[in-house]
Amino acid sequence: MDSRSNDYILAKYDISGIQRYIFATNRLKENVGASCQVTKILEVYLPDSIREAVTQNDAYVIDWKKEDKLRFLEDESIIAEIIYIGGGNALVLFQGMEVCQQVSQNLARKVAENCQGIYLAAAYVEEINLDNFSEDVEKLNRKMAKKKAGMIKQPVYSPFPVVEQDNANHQPITRRYCLSKEENMDMTEMQYQKWMAYQETKGQKEGKLYSLIDGSVNYDYPVDMDALCRDSGGNSYIAIVHIDGNGMGAQVQKVLAESKEYETAVPTLRENSKKISSVFENTYQEMLKGLFRYLKLPDRKREEEIQMPLRPIVMDGDDFTFVCTADLAIPLAAGFLLELMKGQKEETEKITACSGIAFVHSHFPFYEAYCIAEESCSDAKKKWYQRREKENSENCFLDFRILKGSEVGGTVRHEDWQMRPYSVEAKGHEKKEDSLVRLCEAVKKMESWPSNRLHKISQAMLEGEYEMEFLKKEFESRGYDIKDLTQAEDWTKSPLYDALEIRGLCEMKLLEEFWKMQEM
Fold it and tell me: What are phi and psi of 320, to 5 degrees?
């Protein structure tokens, strides 16, 4: 090490604007293509930028997942090594500012040319001695925060009236894509890039989103939003489900606190990142198998391909977002969280997650719907943190919002009646009044009640507690007891309000299947 130059640089590349870029449109093909583009930036463009920046005699390390230690410390010929990639950012170690700047320029050019709408930020710390990794990362993060705060994110648009513009984002129409002999589609450059990225992956059944089920991959995902609607061509409900790991940042800080040196910290950080990705990918595969078994009807031919009623959009480490038919959202989100806990029964420190769901009409602005799902997930995580502090609980939590009409920001009326977020746990082990099991039992009991009486309860709730007490007496005189639905003396401390909201939006049979899977 003493014979090497002391011109070491630790660099960080951060992608911002990801969510707005991916969820800018309700067209699933563009969403999927945009997600592929984001993945390419660090998984493909960064390694390519390093290859282009080095000379023929230089050595470099770009496949960090295959390395169990930091090669930079042992091989003096290595001038660039990717430490790890995850969460929309990458850490890279360089020897020499010249190669660092060239890689940054190459990567910035590729992003500008191929991913309009995405913003790349780069920061670095110089003259490090490869001693205290934790301290260097802390300096780097401070520089990155300052860099991002000062970035000017200039939108791509054309103010000139002679240029045709897209109605949604006012970007200039610069492309015409031939869909068929009779039909062309005019696009902005951003749309075209997303569309072409989708075309590259079209028909490819490989990677973490496709796993073998019954020995084959005899299924695929929908490519049009109409396929997820109850009424094709209409404006029925769909659901955006966002799942995010709990305390992932704290885990990284723990690694850096316990292993400050490069020699020990980098391998531990890599291993932790790979473990998180593996756990979430395996959990998704188990959830998918459960859904496949539920959908596979006895009279279906074995060779007939099944179209899954969901479309994965983002799966990056502990960040998972998918779109699905409305009635499958709660069962699939709960099924994922249940399988996540089941798959780590033997682990002393379990990886947990929370989920947020936005129920919206299919024509609702997609980015706004994603933001609502993300906010719901944040609400669920707040409850997870509160429960963990009090009871050291490892349960996962689930929250949801149902948007009716054009309500932006979600329904906030009568939050006092809401029990959400709900604790997701194996059936038979529920202990809390906010258990998802209690919500589902209330929904099932409603199946035997006349719809008009349930509607009366909803209307009375909108009026307040006085109207509800009056309605209870009216129902009791006719042989109906609201306590049969609430399973509690005090309806204000029951899942009644939430059960009325999701009635018709939760496929109970699938949820029961996921609960049965926990007993296997």
Answer: -135, 125
- Let me know: does 156 contact 117? Beta carbons within 8 Å: yes
Q: What is the rounded average pLDDT of the residues 367-386? A: 94
**Pairwise CA distance, residues 187 & 183, whole Å:** 13
Give the β-pairing of 173-178 and 237-245. Answer: unpaired
More confident residue, 274 or 185: 274
Measured distance CA(70)–CA(81) in Å, rounded = 8
Question: 121 has which bridge partners?
Answer: 14
**Nearest CA-CA partner of 402 in 331, 326, 464:** 326
pTM given for the model: 0.90
| Termini Cα distance of the chain | 54
In angstroms, what CA-CA distances link 98 with 4, 8, 53, 145, 151? 16, 11, 9, 24, 23
Point out which residues pair with 11 in neighbouring strands: 92, 124
Q: What is the dihedral of CA 90, 13, 11, 208, to 10 degrees?
A: 10
Cα distances (Å, whole numbers) of residue 451 to 215, 369, 457: 44, 29, 10
pLDDT by residue (tens digit) across 382-416?
999 988 887 766 789 999 999 876 554 444 455 67
Name the nearest CA neighbour of 124 among 140, 112, 107, 102: 140
